Amino acid sequence: MNDLPEAACEALNAFAQAPGWEQRARLLMQWGERLEPLDDGERSEANRVAGCESQVWLAGERQNGRWHFRAASDARLIRGLLAVLLARVNGLDADELARVDMADWFASLGLSRQLSPSRSNGMNAVLQRMRELTG
């Protein structure tokens, strides 16, 4: 999978330069600020992702056969994790999205050790919800 979306390559480069967890955590917070906002109508129960400890909402739409997702959360660290997940999946078609290995993606960013089981489960729930929307 050398043909990563441009934003995913940008994330890999940025996180590769962060030498420790403190720098990666700061970088995550900065990436979280990049999330495209959801309007109040999109922060609905229908868009809420079940399986997340924090509140997470996900909206997705298909544009020219490719998927574009937007997400929001009430937790800063989760917003950062959502941002780097969206960097990895936005612009993919449904088949490519089905093959995304989330654990591998977070490991390549140097974030897997810091993902608590509940955060990891939450990110898996988000990815699963994306796959439901694209299926």
Protein described:
With about 140 residues, this protein is mostly helical. The chain contains six helices and two strands; from the N terminus they run H-H-E-E-H-H-H-H. The chain has a two-stranded antiparallel sheet. Helix 1 (about 5-15) crosses helix 3 (about 75-90), helix 2 (about 20-30) crosses helix 3 (about 75-90) and helix 3 crosses helix 6. The longest helix is centred in the last third of the chain and has 18 residues, at about 115-135.
Number of helical runs? 6
Order of helices and strands: HHEEHHHH
Structural shape? globular
Percent range for helical residues?
Answer: 40-55%
Give the class from helix and strand content and strand pairing.
mainly alpha
Weakly predicted, low-confidence segments: none
The major β-sheet equals: 2 strands, antiparallel
How much is the radius of gyration in Å? 14 Å
- Average pLDDT across residues? 93
The CA-CA distance between the termini, in Å, is 21 Å
Total number of beta strands: 2
In a nutshell, what does this entry contain?
With 135 residues, the protein is mainly α. Helix content is 50%, strand content 12%.
